[in-house]
Every structure is written in C-alpha cells, then in structure tokens.
Amino acid sequence: MPSALNGQTGMRVRSVLAGEVISGFDACTNYSSGETEDYIVTIDNAPVCTDPPTAGTISGNLFVCSGNNVSLNASGYTLGTSLQWQSSTDNLTWSDVPGATFPFLNSVQTTVDTYFRMIATCAASDTSTSVLVTIKQFYECYCFDDLNPVGCGNGDILNVEIQTSTFNNNSTCNFVLPQGAYNLFPAIGSSTATLQQGTAYNIAVSCNNNTVPLSTSAWIDYNRNGVFENTEWVQIFANGFTGNIGFTIPVNAGVGLTGMRIRSRYATDSNGPDDACERFTSGETEDYLINISSANPCTDPPVAGNITGTLSVCSGTSAGLTLTGFTPGTALQWQSSPNGIAWTNITGANNNTLTTSALNSQTHYRVEVSCATIVYATAVVVDVVQCYNMTNGTIVTCNGNFYDDGGASDYTNNQTLVYTITPLTGNLLQVNFNTFNLESNFDFLKIYDGNNISATQIGPPNGYTGNSSPGIITSSAPDGSLTFQFISDNTIPKKDGLPP
To answer: Which of 81, 158, 185, 384 could potentially form a cystine with 49 if both were Cys, beta carbons 3.0 to 4.6 Å apart?
Structure first.
C-alpha cells in the first residue's frame, strides 16, 4: 500500500461485464451490469521489518499472450521490508522493473518468455526463487471474452463440415462465462483437418431452426498473427439455417496450426468481416484449430486457370476477383492494365484472390502463373458503371447497376417506392438480376411492363419475394421502359436486395 493516512476509510469494489470499460475514473459511473460493494477499512502504521528478511514465494499466471500484462503475486515475505521486482530473459542477468515495489506485479507487458523474481530488503536482503512466464502460442490468444453472453438456444451451431477433408464436427452449445455461448474444440479427430495452400474447399454449416433466420460467418487466421482479420472472412449464408460456400487457402498462407472461427447470429444483425470479436446477443461462436500445409511442388508447364468475380462496379468502389483451376505450387502475380496492352504488377498481390483498389475507370486484370515456365490467365475487364439506388422517381439510361435503397448495404424497413427506368429512344430496357434476397412473404418487388404501376405486371401477382429472383426481364412497352415497386415491412431487412 502506498503512503496513506492512518485511520478508517472507504473501499469500493465494482464488477461489470467484460464488454464494458471500467478504470480508475469510474468509481461513480452508471453501469448496466455487475455489482458495487462498499467497505470500511482501517489503515495502520507499516510494520517494522526484522532481519534477516524472507522474500517469500511468487505465484500467479505463468502463461500469457504476447503483449499482455504479467499478473504475479508475492506471499510469505517479511512485512515491513522494501520490495523490488526484477526480470530476466535468461535467468542470469537481472534488471529492476521500474516502479515495481509492491507485492504484486500487473503492469508489465512482455512479448518473450521472461523470468521474474522479487527482492525483499531490511538491513539485509533476500531473493525469491524465480518463476518463468511463458508466452502462449498465438492460436491460444484469440479474442473470446463476452462473445455471446445471452446464452444458448438462439441460433446454435449444430454441424461444421469442410468437404473433401477430415473435418466434420457435430456439436451442442456450451455456455460458460466470460465467453458466453462458446465452444473451443481440440485439434483432434473430426474437429480438425489439414488444408493445403492454393487448394479450394467447401465449408458447410447447419444451425438449429428456432424460427428466426440466421447468418453465419467464418474466419481463418491465414497469416497466423493471432487476429481474425476482415480479409480472412467468408459469409457461409446470410438468411436461413443451413448453407455452404467455397473458399481457397491462399498460396501464401502461413504453414502450421492456426485458428478458424465460426459465428452464427440472427440475420437481422450484422455478422460481417469486422465482427469476429463483436458482442452478439444471439447465436453461438465456435473456435477450431486447422493445419495448413505447403502446396505440392508445381508441375511444368503450369495451368493458368480462370479469373472470376465482380466485373462491374460503381465508381469509387472495389472489385473482388478470384483465380481458380491453376496448378498448385505455382507463384502467382496479379497484374493490371488500363488498356489490356501495357501491364503492371500489383504490389503484394500474390494470392489467388484480389480486392482491387477503388476504381474510377475500366481496368483489365490478369494473373501471371509461374513454375519453370510462365503462363497467363485470360484477362478480365472490370467496367465502372453508373449505379442507381431504389427511390421514388424516374431515370433515363441504358446502362448501370440497380440496387435497393440501401445500395450494397441493408435496404430500409417500411418502404413503398416506385422507380421507372426508361431507355434512350428506340431501345428496349433489359435487366438481369444477379442477386436477389428479400424477407420472404413480407417484402416484395413488383415489376411493370411500362412507365407506371398501371402497366401490365410481370411475374407473381404479389410480386417477387425471398430468394426467387426475377432473372432476366425485358420490356415490351412502346417506350421500352420498366417500372419497379418495392414494398418492405418493419422487420428483417436483407442485404443486396435488388441489384440486376
């Protein structure tokens, strides 16, 4: 205890959920969780030390994540002595820890295995036996506090399978604090697999059907840095209870054990690339360890593969491209060109996936695939087009991307919007819906073959809903126009509702 006045004084102890911030300035802060307890304590004079002193023993958490605080305590030392903590990386050469003169040590961070000891001094001194604080493996240090504190039964994960591998894990929800609805599975049997660099897989997830549709996401720590980053994310399904998606292990992924996280959540809430550590009030989180192995040596001549992805974007946005079917073990280099003639390497783009920079003009992309010889994947062209969001009004155009009122994000509840698109004179408008996802039987898109909602309706009388895409619609109206009426209720907006 630092210097303090003798006599009775107050002591306050407070607890809050791990998701809330509490510090030395929050003795009186209003919190929505936890408890506050007040006590009266008496402060006496410090005892007088006696010689020879005893340094006692050290206990505490001997395994920490890199960069986290050490938490050690000394006990059995002679009261009244002066205390000094010391650290060493080799248990031979010691240095005083600045300011560490209390019987506890909790403000020191370390990134390497470190020894600690304490010296107790009266007229003479005594040194405790040192303890070694070991840095945990990165895959033991992912964020996990307060992930799903509400409990099980709100979208539990039942099965995760990585097809064409040994991974096929059935599970039941486990509720334990501070994580909440959370499971951590060991790297054994059907709850792990070895996945190879540059190889494509398919991941499938099933959740319990509790009437509220779910979204599920997966993150794999490809660079083995102990963080589930937004570039390591895929959405398995956005609205339902089961689904699957293909993914490819990057050719430059780190080799060895690494983490994989699966999260479920009500589809009304975000479960996107930045949500690996967010506090959810529904669903479940499951963590796994998988092993990434090196790609097999390439064979010559290599196969270049094919590029697929987003080939039409709004001005100022990025495109996502993927190379598939290439020879494993080859070196990859993405290239770009303004005209398909002069090509430039894209720095750092050596994976089979590419997120382009924000585009404002048409750009060509290809991949250089190298073994002993070099081949090139056939180039694709990403066009930059005008984008139109659903609203009340009329436009005249023959080209562009058409989105719901939220653009690439969720559409808005409680909307009734009418939007007419008319082509240039002498043309017939044709729209091709490549994504369609509305709340089934509650939100609707009606399409009319003309320039108002009195024209002949195309498709179901109530309109298109759910995932039943209109497909390709071509106007037969005299002016070549189509009119769209979008109706949404007050719950469960979806992403990317209308883009043709």
So the answer is: 81
